[in-house]
Amino acid sequence: MNGQTRDVPWTGTGGISDTQSYSWIILNAIYDRIIASSFFQNFSIKRITRALPIQAEYQIPSIGIYLGNETAVADGDPNAGDIRLEHTVPVGIQIVVKNNDSVAMQATLDKAKWFILNQLLRDNTLTNRFKTTIPDNVRIEGFPKLRIPSPDWGRDSKNETPIGIQMIELTYTLRSEWYPTDFDDLKEIAITAYPELAPADPAEVTHVDVVYRFDPDYVPPPLTGPGP
Question: Helix count (H) and strand count (E) of the chain?
Answer without folding.
Answer: 3, 9
